[in-house]
Structure prediction request, 392 residues.
Amino acid sequence: MGVAAAIFGLALLVMIHEAGHFFAARAVGMTPRKFYLGFGPPIAKTVRNGVEYGIGSIPLGGYVKIPGMNRPSPGDLRKLLSPEQAQRHEDELSSLDEAIERGDYDTAHERVLALRPALGSTRAWQEMEGALARDAYWRAATWRRLTAIFAGPAVNLVFALVLFTALFLVSVTRDTNVIGRISPDTPAAAAHLQVGDRVVLVAGQAVAPKDIPKHIRATEGRPSKVVVKRHGRRVVVPLRAEKIDGAYRIGIAIEARYGPGESPPAAAQDAVALTWQITADTVRGIAHLATGRDTDQVSSSVGIVKASAAAWRAGLRTFLFVLGLISLALGLLNLLPVLPLDGGHIVMALVEKVRGRTFPQSVYIRYSVVGLTIFGVLMYFGLRNDLFGPGG
Prediction:
């Protein structure tokens, strides 16, 4: 049940992300050709008002097919056809290429439409027809393109904010300094810390409940002392933190207690503060990855499903909170300035605005190679950590 809930939650976040693109594109005059949840061959599909809606056989991700994401170049259609088809329609293709070469895209579109009876069922023709259509993405004004692209991440960010606000309205987690769990075979277990101990000092410093992990990490494995209150008296516990899952820890979990919810203004304010804190941590984490640090903190879709399933077993509130975190991460990571992510398309739209002319598809492809290479490296680290543990 937990895994099913996790997959459903991830599918929901992808769906609202793609729905943001879909409805924003339609609002600014572009008609998406496809709206799919999942990838691969469709297991179900239907066509309504010229839009194909479907569910892919690979239940990870999804996409909206906005026509003409790149400006077509002469020879694009010819290269995608079989040699026999290209030879059979040599005259029509040459006429099409001439129209594209001189920038007469409306005439080029008419010549593509004339090829519909012979090539309309091919993906090559469908791609070229969308690229030359009047509602093609690359032909739209910059503000329309930015609206269609930014809407996807924006929906994820708003969804996270709304979810956090709702959770703060219902109840609030109060920080405590009480040890709620001790993991076996850890420094805390060896030092005989006990569940119910109240942490007072770490390495000689008084600590607020939320800062206990930070102070433990700051010892960096050096011998230190933790002072706890146990049955009304202070107990000094010598121990040394060990590196566990990429950070110095002693193997304790601090107890959290739920309290009554907040007023709407306070809940909204706390949701914004939490979102900003997570955003800042995400940016710092990405900067660390760029310098080769914290690669053991990267997770793949496997790890996301595992974490979501565990959250479901912990309770609905925890599951919804984790769902909000994933939605926020999905929105932020999609704003990275590399193709094929939304952030890459935003960068290209702005550069093309300054340049005064759109780039051909070949430039987009070369830029995408950079992004796909980065994704490949991150996927390696994520799968390594999720399947074999940090540092695998």
Summary: The first strand starts at residue 34 and ends at 48. The two ends are 28 Å apart (CA to CA). Residues 228 and 234 are 6 Å apart (CA to CA).
